[in-house]
Every structure is written in C-alpha cells, then in structure tokens.
Fold each of these.
Amino acid sequence: MEAPAHPIVQRFAARAVADEARDVPTFWIDAARIHEVLTFLKDEVERPYRMLYDLTAIDERMRRAAPGPPREMTVVYHLLSLERNQDVRLKVAVPSEAPAVPTATDIWPSASWYEREVWDMFGVKFDGHPDLRRILMPPTWRGHPLRKDHPARATEMGVFELPDERAQAEEEAMRSAEREPTDSTRILTLNLGPQHPGTHGVLRIVLDLDGERIVDARPDIGFHHRGAEKMGERQSWHTFIPYTDRIDYLGGVVNELPYLLAVEALAGIEVPDRAKVIRIMLCELFRIASHLVWYGTFAQDLGALSPVFYMFTDRERAFQIVEAICGARMHPGWFRIGGVAQDLPRGWDGLVREFCEHMPDRLREYDRMVMKNPIFQARTRGIGAYTTAQAIEWGVTGPGLRATGLGWDFRKKRPYGGYDHFEFDIPTAAAGDSYARAEVRVAEMWQSLRIIEQCVNDMPGGPVKADHPLATPPPKERALHDIEALITHFLGVSWGPVIPAGEAFCGVEATKGSNGYYLVSDGDVHPYRVRIRTPSFPHMQMLPAISRGLMVSDLVTILGSIDFVLADVDR
Amino acid sequence: MMPLAILLGVVTFAGGLVWAERRLLALWQDRYGPNRVGPFGLLQVVADAIKLLTKEDWVPPFADRALFVLAPALVMVTALLSFAVVPVAPGIGVVGSNVGLLFFLAMTSMGAWGVVLAGWASNSKYSLLGGLRSAAQLLTYEAFMGLSLCGVVILAGSFDLREIVLAQRRVWFVVPQIVGCLTFLVAGLAAIHRLPFDLPEAEAELVAGYHSEYSGMKFAMFFVAEYVGITLISALSAVLFFGGWLGPVLPPIVWFFLKTSFFVGFFILLRAALPRPRFDQLMAFGWKVMLPVSLANLLVTGAIVLS
Amino acid sequence: MTAQYIPLVVLLGVAGVLVVTFFLLSSILGKKNMTPTKAMPYESGMESHGAAGVRPSVKFYLTAILFVVFDVEAVFLYPWAIEYRSLGWAGLVMMLGFLVVLALGLLYVWKKGALEWE
C-alpha cells in the first residue's frame, strides 16, 4: 500500500486519514473540502484520476464496528486513473438528518446521475446540482430506500393499491421529465418508450424533435429497478449469488464473478486453478452469447430482419454448453464462494470444441452479412461518435471506450480470477462511432473464442472448490461421520458463512463494460452494503450528449450500439 | 365477369403471398414459419382473416373519423383498381386502355396518399411522423417513377400495356432499358413501402408509423393492400420489362404468373436481406441518384432509338 | 370509346363493395369494449399531449415544391415520348434543351442545399 506517499496525503495532510480498506487507497475527506480534493485529483495531480468510476453512499447507523471517524452516513467517491492504473476511494462523513455535500457535476458531467441516485436512495443533498430529482424510484415515492430504516420487503409496506386517482397522479408526476418547449409549434415532444420496440426494454426517452431532428433527448430510467442493492442487504452472502445473474441479464455468470471475487477477497479465500479456468470459460461463453444478442438486435434495429435469427441460433449453441455444465441457461447461478458448484460433466470438452470449430465460419458470414453491408455502414458510421477524453469524462468503459482507440480492458490491465494466464488481444477501433463499437464487439467474440480454446486445451485438474471454512456450501462428505463437521455444515448451509468485517471492491470486464461490486461487511451472515456499479448506467447517461442534432433513426442506432441492458441500468 | 375474376384472382394471390412470404422468410431465416393451421400452414391466412374480422371495429375518439375510415379503403381500392390495366394474357384483363400506363401511375399515387391520410387522420405523434415520412418519400420517388418508364414508352410508342408487351416480341425491354428497369423497381418498392423502403412504419423507430392506431379490419386493409401492391409492382415489372405473357411452350397466363412470382420472390428476398436506410439518406438517394439517372437514361434511350 | 371503360367501373364497384362489406362485417362481428386508456393516442404508454398543434418541418414543403417541378416536367415528357419516333432528331434536340434546363435547375437546388435534410 502506497498510501503514505499518496498525493492526497501530501497535499491535504491534515485532512486525509487512511481507512481500513485494504483493496483501494481510501481517504476520509471533510464535506467542506471534497470539491477541492476532487478537482485536485482530476485536474491538478500528476497522472490524474480522470474517471469518476462510481459515486454512492452507505447508511452507517446500524454498523457494529466501523473504523474511521464517527458518522451516520458516508458518501463514497470512487475515482479511476488510467495513467496510474490505480483507484482511489474518498469517503465523506455526513449526518443522517439533512445530509449535504457540494455537487461534483461541475467537475464531471457524469456525476449528475450518480448524485441523483444517491439523493434518491439515501436522501443526501448535493448542493449546486442543477437537476436533483429522483432517478430510479418514481417521483411520488416517499422515503429513501437504501436507508436502513426504509422497509426492504413489500410485506412491510402495507397492501399496494392503485386506484384510478392515484394512477392519474403517478401519470401526471411522470410528466416532470417532459419540458414545455420554448417554441411549441416547431418542437414536438415525443415519448420514445417506456413501451416501444426500439428501446430494448422499459426505457423512456423524452425527445424534443424539430421535424425528425433531435433537439434534446432526456432518458428517464428506473422502470426496471428491482432494488438489487437493498436485496443484497437481506440475503446471505451465498444466497445473493443468483440475484447478481439478473443485473446484466444477458451476461449470466459474468455478473457473479466480481461479486464473488470481492467476497473471496474479504474472506481471504484462494480459489483453486480448475475453478478459475471453469469460471473464465463460462464467462467468455457468456460474453459471446451476450455479444450475439447485441449483434442480432442491433442489425434488427437498423431494419435487417434476418441476422437476429441466425445469431440467436448460435447463441443457443452456447447455451447448450452452459446447460450441459450448469443445468440452467441464462442465469445459472453457478459460481460459489470459493469455486464453482460442481465439476464439469463428462464430455464437456467435446461440446466446447465443437462450438469453437463452428463459430469462426459463422462470424465470417455475419461479417459479410452485417458489417460489410453498405446500408448498415451508412447508418452507423459517424453516428454517435465521441473521443477517448469524452468517454473517460462520462465514465464509459468496455467496448464503448475501446472503440475510441484506447486499449483498456480490465482483464489485461488488472488481471483478475486467472486471466493473466491466457493469451488474447484487446481489440480497439479508432472512430469512436457506432460502427467502431460494433467492430470492437465483433473482434471481441474472436478473442473470447481464443480464450475458450485455451481453457479446453489446458484445463487443470484438482478440486473445483477451495478447501476453506468459508467456502460455501461446505463439504458434505464428513458431515454424517463427525458431530463438529455436522454442526459446521448445518450453520454454513442454514445461515451461510460469516464473512469477516471490512470492505472490498472488485471490478471486472463484463460484457457491456466494467461491472464492479463494492461490498461492506460488518462481520455478519449477510452483507452490510452491496454497491453494484454497472456499465450501462453511465453509458445511458451519455446518450443526450451524443444524440443531439441527429435524427430519430440515429437515436435507435446509438441505443443499439451502446449495448445496454435496462436491468443493468436500473438494477 | 372479367373484373370479378381478376379481383378474385388478385386477392387470392395476395392472400397466398402472405403465406408464401412468411414461409420463405422462415426458410431463409432458419425457422419454420406458419405450419400448424392446415396443410403446410396454408390455412393460417384464413385463420388470420377470421381473427381480424372479429376484432373490435375501432375508430379512436381522438382521430378524424371520416378520414380515418377512408384511408384504408382508399389504399385498398386503388391497389385493386390498378389491376384493371394489367394485361394478364391475350384476352385476359379488365380494360385494354390506351392510357394504361398513366392509369397505373395515377392509382399508385392515389394509394400512397391513403397512407399519408392515415397518418394524418390518426392524430397521434408516431402516426403523424410516419405519415410525414410517407408523404416525402412518395413525392421523391413518384418524381422519377414516371421518368423511369418514359424509355419503355419511347420504345413501344404506346401507353397501352398490351402494346408494350407485344413490342417486346423481339427482345424484352429489360435489355435496352436495364437502367429504367432498375429505377422502376426501386421506385415501385418505395411506392408500396417495402423494406428497405418501409420507413413510414419502421418499427424500431416509429413503432408502426402511419398505422399505429389502426386495428382489426382497417389494419387488415393496409396489410392486404401491401401484398396487392407487391403483386402489382411484380406484375408491372414483368409486363414492362420482361415481356409479360410472352414465352415459349407454356400457355401465356402461366408465363405471366411465373414472371410475376419471380419478382414477388425477389421482393421477399430483399426484405430478408437488407437493412433500412435513414430517412435523409433515402431522400438524398432519390433526388441525387435516381432522378439524374432516370433523366440520363431517357436521353440515351432517345439517342439510341434514332440512330 | 366510353363503353370500353365499363369493366373498369364494374371493378371499382366490386372493389368498393368488397371493402364496405369487410368493414360492415367487422363492425357486426367485432365486440365493443371501450376503456379510458384505449381512448388515448399511443405514445409508448405515456399520456400524449399535443400531436395536432405541431407544424411539419419546412423541409416537407420544400420537398413538395420540388416534386411539383419535377412531376410536371414528367407530364411534359409523356406526350413527347409517345410521339418520339415521329418527331425524330428535332424532337430529341428540343427535349434535350428542356431537360438541360431542368437538370440545371436540379443542380441549382442541389448546390443551394435544398436536397440536404438539415
């Protein structure tokens, strides 16, 4: 840990205190100075932290033992420096009554949605925020759901009723996202969604149109919000795993990995090699499956009817392998704390080899059918372009960032879960437009195939679960021979493991960008706080900036090229 | 009797075409298509018709009632009327008019206005946008559809479609008029809003465009009219450029049917294969490529005919 | 001459009857079920406000004007095309002059940017 030498310490010596977190250099900052510190880290420090990776909060009122200054709530800033390949976490202690911190929207445009989310979920005000409204919850919601005193289950909230008057009021409240245009005869306000075939789910975009030209676009999200972070606080460490699958519901096990890596970091579990390789193989299979869905639906958004059928057929092949290994298809819930649920079935390698031999021809055909089609190119080239600097400014990760020419891939830059043992390239493109994003994803499928081939060829032997007391579920073999083993097994299965107090963060290269889990443990059978940083959230926030001045058709192109999943935006 | 026979023939063909398209698309897209109702799913069309007939007869209260009902009727009637001038075979056809080609052009334009009217009368934003797109597309592609046919008129020296067919006894007009043929096919596709020219209803963008607010039988009219339109443009392509009923051995009507079916299949293949251009790209293509090409084609044809 | 067009009138009649029959049948067979939400224009599930008040972009009018120009020109071309062989080279030259003016017009609006959808 290089904390003592950290520039924050040098510059703000009196104010910065190193926290207990072991994973990321963490500092306590006064609310009054946070703006100054953020500006310093973004603009002034050498090799700056240019990306606001995440911004969230923790309600600390129920903590049993929390090192650091006394506080009721904590606002957490997570910054990323690409130059240093290093993160920094800043914590601001605030009271629970009328908490407030100065806004960071003037430093990062991407802070806007994050601050709205913290306001929505915790009731922390951001002084100077231009548009501090609820973002995930309906505008009529009472209370701030991620506060510990807000009920977590529907049964704690009374019977839900929606009489006509209330439905009317909700409808009326929804109109707050529409704005009375200055020139109402020229500008048409159009709701694209929530029920619209071009939005890939329940997303609402309020458009101000001049003819078909977009004057302004305002995404209204939250329709798919299921309170995943709140659920994390009531599930055991083990039983939360299936919920993660459904965050980016096309990514399947890719979601489980960052959660489990963070839990394993807290528990100090070293995962055996065979489990690592199985995890990586499944993740890359899911990356291909997810990209195939994107490929097909993107083509369909542009009016090509056929590709989606071919690509779903190939995705089905990937799912057959997943099914053979896990028993489930889209959301296997297969990884476990300390490894995976079971060893690979007999004959798995034949299935995977067959897939690896089958795909290259298909990908080449798709290339001719979609990527080389002149109409497709005319619709995507130059549409929704942004530069690397803009991407970093807005918190863009994944293919959207690599399409601007920056080869930043967490699998390479911060090898996790065993990726350092694999050979693969980071595909990039230069233009940063919709076509470039498509190119990168297509090239990524080839790389994923490479990784999968290496997995098949060099699958290590040995156990698939760590031999560790916190690995869950605990081994059953000795439970009926020995009373101590039986008790341990019973506790491990019924309560789940007790993960040591502390906090851990793990970010991975998910299918759509960087997916990160920031876990706070209070030394209990369930997490104290689960923060899920998803890639689609900042990507969606960038939409207005890259779609103004274009046409409605281009908006559909951009939506398709971003490759978001609304469950990933709303959680 | 002839009008009735032609009408029945056209409607039956269009109904069969709905089935054929679904089966062909399914074939090309590695799936089954309708295969449960009747042999090979042939009765699917009948089932669909019954379903649509028993749907609610719905005129939205916010719509312009008269126009809302008129629009689908207009689209359907003009599509059917166009067949009046199509010479199926010697002796088979409704009228042998000496202005047949002009009549066809007039009906096509009228039908396209039905679509614009539908978008306008619906009084709904997506419909309106679809209607506007439709209007602009119609105007642009109408402008050179007539031009693309002038070459044929010069070669045949007549607007009578029978005369035009007979004038192709030596060589099909597709040979001297390949450019005219291509521009006509493009304009025809645009006139009947088939992919890649289905911008007025582009589902990923405008949900269903001009017919967003339509349901039941009124929607069915647009739907059937589209297939009648495909049949019409296919038949016209066969008549104008591929010698209509002319052909060896087989009876004339069979040749006409085969040629028409070929174009129908081609249009379905286009739908399976192509993405959709953007609205401004479509307009630019019409004004900057197709229109000058049609003009040039006309002059070249003129010079060749004289020399 | 007019007798020739009687089948056309018959066809018009039959097509009209067909459409009206279908509409009537559907109105008899279909059930009626009015709900308040059904009475709202579709706008992706949101309440719709003000579709009627919006004027189409001026580009649409421009397209309409261009269309009038070029379609009227097509109207001039038809009689010329049909009498083409009898007009001979003189006809071609005349029409060439006409089309050149027209092409210049197209070039002009092109350069003026009237064909750009901006």
Amino acid sequence: MASDPLDDLLDRSLPEPVPTGFAERVLMHVRSLGGAPAAAGVRGRVLRPVFGTASWVSIAAAALVFLGVGYWLGRGAPDVRDLERSGGGAAMAEADITGIYQNLDVLRDLDLAMDADLELALADAEAATTSLRDLAADGTRVPDPDPEDER
Amino acid sequence: MTAGERHEDRGVRWMLAFQAGDDAAFEELVREYSQFVFALLRRLLGPAEEIEDLAQESFVRLYRARERYRPVGRLSTFLYRITYNLALNRIRDRGRQGAASLSSSRDGAPLEVLDPREAARSPSDATIWSDRVHRGLQQLPENQRAALVLQHFDGFDLQQIGDVLGCSDKAVKSLLHRARENLRQILTPMMDAEDGL
C-alpha cells in the first residue's frame, strides 16, 4: 500500500522535549501530597468490606435512618408507663412506626434522586463538566477513567 | 512469579509493582512515559505554557489511581486517557475564556489554510516544518486531532484510540478520515509552494 504523503508531513513534527528535572518534580509533588500511599491503600481495604462500594449518599442516608431510630427509641419514644395508663399504647406506637416508615421513604427518594443525577452527569462528558464542577471543590470536571473499566 | 511479572506490557508491570509497594517502579514509569505525555499534550494543545503542569497532573492522577488500578490493556492507553481528558478540559477552558484560538475550531467550522507565501519566505528546515504541522493540527477539532495524533505518533489501533477518546471503532475511523482530509487541505498549499520554489 502506498504511503500517504500526509504521514511524511506529520513525521516532520518534532517531539516536545521533556524539561530537565521533570521526573524529580513529579516525584516531589506526589510525596508532598501527604499520607503515604500504602497507608491509604490499607485504609481502603479495611473499610471496603464494611461499606462495599456504596456511595457516600447511601451511607449518609443509612446513618440518618439509624440516628432517627436511635432517637425514637431513646428520647422520642413515648413513655411506656404513659401508654399503659392511657390504654392507647398500641395506636400511638403504630402512628409513630408509620411516621418512621414515611421518613424512610423520603430518605430513599432523596438517595435515588441524587444517584440518578450523578449517573446522568457521568453519562455525558459535557454534563459531567458542569455537575462535577459544582460538586467538587478542586475544579475537576471530566472525571478520570475508572481503572476497573479499562479493557 | 506474580501476575505483574508475567504481564507483557512493561508499564503494567511497573504499575503493579508500584501497587504492591515498590515506589521505585513509579519513578521508572514517570521516566519512561514523560516523553509520550509531553508529546501528546504538545500536539493537542500547541505551544502552551501549561504543558508541564498538565503533564505533572497526569502522573499525579495515575499515582492516585494506584489502589483502583487493574491490569487490563496497556498502561499507555490508561495514562493517555487521563492526559486527553486534562487537555480537553484545558481546551474548553480556553473556549470559555474567549481566548479561543485556532485550536477551538469545531466540526463544520471553516479551516484556515496556511498562507503559501510563508513557505516561500521561510527556510524549509525541520523546525519550521514542525511548527507548520503543529499549527495545522491545532486547526483540527480536538477529537480529530487526538485521533490522528494517537494513530500516527503512538501507533494506536482503532480500539485503543476509542478507549482513549471514549468512542466506538467506527467513530474513530470516521474521525481519522476527516482529520486527514482537513489536514491535507490545510497543509497542501504549503507543500505546493515549497515544491514550486
């Protein structure tokens, strides 16, 4: 196959020289990031079995539910003696339980909405540019590729 | 023998060794791939002052990806994808700042054919032609430019280019065709002028 003359032209493009000391500056930079990478890795491995791959939104929602139930069981629950005296303990308890489940629905809705937004943003590079800029303080826009997705 | 030692791609072997705690392997990796990252950024962005900053950021992001990295495909594909994303953000920043240069041209936008008289005025040495090729590349839409650069200078095949750009083989093929046609249109007058001297 005859070579394309355009390739000959492109071959005239000279490579960009790497500035002296570039590798040293990169290494200095990564060392200055703080926190030995090995420690970060251990931390990741320790926490992964506990939280799996759940997003921070899901974890936060679960924590809110636990806190809510804890509060209800502690200060928020009606005094058992009052319930016995009034004779309406079962009805009151049922109302409170219904309330908790309503809150759970709200939390679930919130979680789903936020996840959907994120997924939508990540599905489109341009949208991600906008959404992730709003979310991330460091200004990162087009997200890095996920190493686990590499073919 | 570990999986990393068996892997045929040297970059992957270094990355796995780095993942296993060998920091010297990351240093080897930076030294080996710096030239490629600089060349890619130069060809995507033109003569930009921020090339070193972006090259450094590419390696920092690779460093941060250490825990999540899985040895699939060539390391260069992964590193180039990081670099390409950074370059793309830079190009978009330029467009937003209104400092859109030739590099911001989009599909369908008219291409500026380089002035053939410049060839007649200029000595035809390697540096000047290199500059012309770089300027020609800057006129291509960024996805066409990246596809052509990865194919010609890095020897990537359609699938690897698609992995970096995030598109299908078919789309890459189309990008390459349009990139070559556009660049030919830009550079041919320069060649003709030189031949006529």
Amino acid sequence: MSEPLLELRDLRVRFAAPRGGSVRAVDGVDLELARGESLGLVGESGSGKTTLARVVVGLQRPDSGTVKLAGEPFGPSAIPAQRRRAQIVFQDPTTSLDPRRPVGWSVAEPLAIAGRLTTRERKLRALAALDACGLESLFVHRYPHELSGGQRQRVAIARALVVEPDLLVCDEPTSALDVSVRAQILELLGELRARFGLSLLFVSHDLAAVRRVCERVAVMYLGRIVEIGPRERLFDAPAHPYTRALLDSVPGGDPEHPRVAEPLPGEPASALAPPPGCPFHPRCSRAREVPGDRCTRSAPKLTPTPRGVVSCHLHAPR
Amino acid sequence: MSLLDVRNLRVRFETPHGWVQAVESVSFDVEAGETLAIVGESGSGKSVTALALLSLLPRPPAVIETGEAWFDGRNLLALSERELRGVRGREISLVFQDPTSSLHPMLTVGEQIAEVLRAHERISSRAARERAVEALAEVGLADPAARAAAYPHQLSGGMRQRALIAMALACRPKLLIADEPTTALDVTVQAQILALLREVQRRHGTAIVLITHDLALVADVARRVHVMYAGSIVESATAKELFARPAHPYSLGLLRSVPSLATPLDSKLSGIPGVPPDPRLPPPGCAFEPRCPFKVAQCSSSRPPLTAPPSAGSAPQGVVRVASRRAACFESARVAAESAR
C-alpha cells in the first residue's frame, strides 16, 4: 500500500482547566488518511473532533504524538510550503472572513504568505479558485456582508483551495447554513474532491451529511476514536454501542415511522474526570453483557474485530 | 374549537433602509393538545410570528399592521401589557433555541423557576422553591434539588434546555411555543429533548408549536406543518401529506435538500438554487418565483393565494383528501404530480 497522506500516531492534546486539573481533549489517537480519501469525524460536542482537526492543519500543537503529512513531520512550526498542504474551512464564514476586505483580497491573501507570485498571478489564481467554487469573477469586489451565507462559505472554501492543498479539513462546514444551501455545499465538496484529487477530513455532528460525503468514518467519544470503518459497514452495522445510539438519535425524516424512543440516556461524562474503564460505560446499555466488570475496569483499545475496527469489550477477542 | 386562532397577521419592521415586510398575512390555528410545526429558513418570518403573538417584538422597529390572535376567548394582540403578563408563562410559554442566553446567569435555576411561579400564583417563597424542584424532577433531571441550587453555567447545554422547559411548564400552560428548541444541542441530547416534549404533551395535554428549520425533526413529532417562505405560509399540510407529496415547489426543494440516513447515495441532492428575495424589495408576484423550477408566466406578476391544490386526478383510491391542505402555488397540481414520482 502506498504511503498515507496523513498519519497521526498516539496524538494527545491536553488543556489546563481553570481550576486545576486538565482536560484530555485528544487522548491517544492513531489515524491514517490515504491520498484522495474522504474521512468523516463524528462525535458530540466535547468529543475532541475540532481539536483534532486543528492539530491536523497545524493550528494546535499536540502535547505528544506525531503528525506526518506526505511523510514529513507537520505542525505549527512547519515551513509555509509544507503548511500550505493542509487547509481548513471553518463552520461560520461570517467570522472567518475579514469584513473590511473584498472577498477577492481574502481569497488571494494565503498566496501572499505561501508563495512568490506576482500580484497578477495571485489575482488570476484567486479568480480560478472562486470559479471552481461556483462564484463568478464579479464576486472579487464584493464584501462579505453583501453575500449570502452559502456564498460566504464558498469564498471560505475558495480561500482554502487557492494554495492548492493536498488535504482539506472542513469543520462543520454546513452547520451555520440554511437547509436549502447545505446540499449545495455538500455537492460542491464532492465535486472539488473529484476534480483536484483532494483528501478530505470532514468534521461534523451531522451524520447524514457525513454519510453523503465520506467514504470512511471515525467516531470520537471523550477524546478517543471508538470506532472507525468504511461508510457502508459503519452506517449499516455499527459495532460500538455509542455509534448505534448516535445513529438512532438522528431524526428519521419519515412521518410514517416517527422515532419515539430516547436512544441514549445521559450526557458524555466530564472530560475533566473521565470515568475509569471504558469512557462510555456509564451510558452504555450493553456494558452488563460483558463478564467480569471489564467495562468499568479497563479501557478497551481500538482493535480490528470481526465486526470492524472498534474499541469495545463486547467485540474484543477473549 | 381551536386553542389558538391567528388571523391575517402582518408584521413589518422599520429599518434605516426602509420598511421590511417580515410577516405577510399569516393565518393558522392550533388545536388543544396537538403538535404543530412551523418550518422555514432564516428570515422566513417563523420566529417573528411567534414573538408577535406574545407582543415580545420591540416596537419600534416592529409594527403589527393587522391581525388577531384568539386564545381562550381573548384577542392576544389587543391585550394590555398588564394583561399579557398574566398570559405569558402561565397560559402560553416560550422556549428559545439558546438556553444560555435565556437564563439569568446570576440566579440559580431554582430561583428563576420560583420567580415564574410567584409571578403567577399566590404562593409562599418556600412553596415556590419546592415546586421548582418538582418541576426540575418532572423534566427528567437527576438530583433535582442539587440542580435547583446550581447556576446556569454549572449545567450542561442539555440540562439548561431541560431547566428552561421546566420553567416554561411550571404553571402548566395550555400552549408551549418552542423556537428551535434543539438546534444548539447534540443529536443524542436533541433526541432526549424531543422525547421529553412528547412525554409532557402526553401527560398534560399541552399543545406545542414547534418552530424549526429541520424537516427531519418535524417528521418525528408534528401532526400538522406550515411551511413559511419570505414571510408567508406557502404550504399547510399534515406531516404525512407534506413528506409524501409536497404541493409547493419550495417544500419539494427543501425535502430534496436534506439528506437522511436512508437517502440513496447515488441520488443527487438538489438544494434550492439562488437565495430568498431581499425583503426590502419583494418581487411583485410569487416570492419564490426567481428560484422556482415550476414557474409559469403569471407567477412573476401575481401572487398565488393559499388554497387547496386542485385534485391532481390521480389520488389513490380510498385516500381521503384532508380539507386542511393548502398550497400557495398556481402550479401545485404539477408540483404534487412531480413530487409523487
């Protein structure tokens, strides 16, 4: 197998809590992403998915572990030519674009940092990036407040693409948008990936959107990946009880078969004081099926099992 | 007789750039004990409609031009501020999207619920505190006495939303208006809050008006749905009718925009091209005309009324046409035929 584009090994990020102690936002994550692959990262707020995304693009320095991009070590201190290879699109384009600059300026700005291009070349590249994102050249002179939410998000994507990255990280790229616009952005991401051979790390709590866009999906819970697998397997036959509960929580969109059950009681445990053993066991409906209190005593490891790559004692080989 | 009967509500805002018509002749009714959903995107007027009913819009800039809202024999829009205070929180309660900004950060959750009770009932502060703890227990919060003593920042988002629902229900209102009650929450907590609302309704017969942009959520909880676009109701139907056979192109577009876990992966999501009209410069005809794939010549000049769609001729045998079904579209028969495919 060829070398993966992105390789994370035993990544850990810890944040100091205001009143002492620390939060393990990312707690030992191993992850690989192949060239051209799209990987979805799902989980609830506080699961560490955004922190992981920020580490991947070098906005957050990990406390330990390694990030490699195309075989080279990668992080906040990587040289600009290397940093260029991983770009990020944030949730809210209203706050991620400079309100006082025309969007053409914002799209061209990364080129001024990353390369040695003339002003004219920068302008042409910005136009091409906007065009790839479905915005005509007249948008160059517009200001963010003159655009709709969907158009602003297209500008944010164009700005990420303008430096021709290998990896595009999208952190909840459709959550701040109106429903009728979300579909367009999802379709655009699919087109861009096919056209430029981009790898995509798609961070979202919207499972239906992840299913549309991503070939492989990783589920995070309290800083750890608890299950990872190909889209078809993960959505059709989730192995981890948490993945099952997440899928059951998604509204059905079918009034003939309304979802009535409350799929998962409680809320994630505090990341300040994660429970001993499996971090999910206090909410897990199946913990009692595992003999010998293993769920409360030892943390399961992410391992390949007949049901998929999952960290759950239910499926662990005995 | 319906619990709430809203007739011809029109609201506009005065802005530095001129008048903006936020709500344009909206009429609907809510039956006792039912769940009604009002669906629309940002700027559709769905929240303004709800706020106008309880006179919670700042005036100016808002102006309620026309409208009546009959609730229990009284027109809410004609009540004095003093009379309204007796209605809000006691007979009609509101729950907003963001529980963080709806709760007072410097008061404990219990104090805030007790305050609502004491505003509406002659009750000692001690009894009010006890009732507050009961209200928190009722919405499924574990250890309610401890939660009552907590400040909002000490609770998680899901717990805050439960506390807010407890406060809204403390006086047993007949109607609960929930404006995007789960939008800020994680999916698992969202499912919990929806289950809670259903449980509350089953137990107390509370009518619920659910205001949301999320059609998938509507499918799970609402019996009837009004779809709003650019300040008007463009389609009214039962949830089952709407999902099976939308009769307005905007409803159809919305349904085709939203992927569900069951959407085939090879189907293309269409979305809706374009953007809603600038509310300062509404088009003379149908507001959806510029984005509409079904438009015909008359759409750009005259505005279609909200009427029962003409029988498409192919209604399956044995299906009873529900008289409440309405769509504001000249081509609704064609839309319904297309959407049935």
